[in-house]
């Protein structure tokens, strides 16, 4: 058994390559919070995309509780961390901190065993189908064309997603024009998905679903707020398009409430409680007859998603693939619409401190 010697956290804010926005939010930078765990002469890394405050929770609330614990006992560390968060509250910043540490511990355990993380977790898939995700509401037609054809024609990815619900659903005409443009750009043989980020009301989402069908859209993500479970159910019951949600799920209990009202469960390993909780969420989804789709953070999702029998796909999010290619070595390039985890110890990505230094904020 190996003693966990140190848990470190740091934060990096990286400007976007162009203004980005969706139905209910706009941003021009993204912050990655990195966790490094050290033991047995090796370092494991995990991360989340959130406030630099996540780093404070890691160093102040989590690290002192698990340093000295056995590295191999990842679930035991997870239990200690979950207990430590009781009075802080698990959803949000604390849940992201927990998730990043859990991912780092799994990575370290696999590196100590000198085996790829996907093998340690029991991979049942060799690769993970991906979909190109971006299509921000802030893009003009040229930007949308370049991005979508880059995925479909350039990288051979047969499924893409764009943002709709612009300005909280107040410019539905433009949403419809952009969906029509997207369908024209990618052609009929590419799957087209949309994400409203909770921008519509229930009645509006029902009307939008009816015109989305005319463009053969197969996936309607967060048509209404993911906190409105009754609203999600109402939209789902009225359309044959798959209604999906789950990216803001922070614990197993939320997913238990979510499963009965969606057609596919989304989960984010950097928010939901790390790899430890993601695998439980996948089992819960399977019990409801549902598949699971990974949300963003591609480099961290690849290994655990291969171990999920009821996997649908992984969101190959423009912002995060860009950052993980800049700050890590080893993020694979998709081939024939799927990405294969690196055949290297741990998750196979190597942090590049020199590349990240100029973006460091804490
Ligand atoms: Mg989304």
TrEMBL record:
Transmembrane regions: none
Cofactors, names only? Mg(2+)
Keyword Metal-binding assigned: yes
Asked if the Swiss-Prot or TrEMBL record annotates the protein with the keyword Magnesium, the reply is: yes
Top-rank lineage group of the source organism: Bacteria
Keywords carried by this UniProt record: Magnesium, Metal-binding
> Which PANTHER family does this chain map to?
ENOLASE SUPERFAMILY, MANDELATE RACEMASE, MITOCHONDRIAL ENOLASE SUPERFAMILY MEMBER 1
Listed name of the protein: Enolase C-terminal domain-like protein
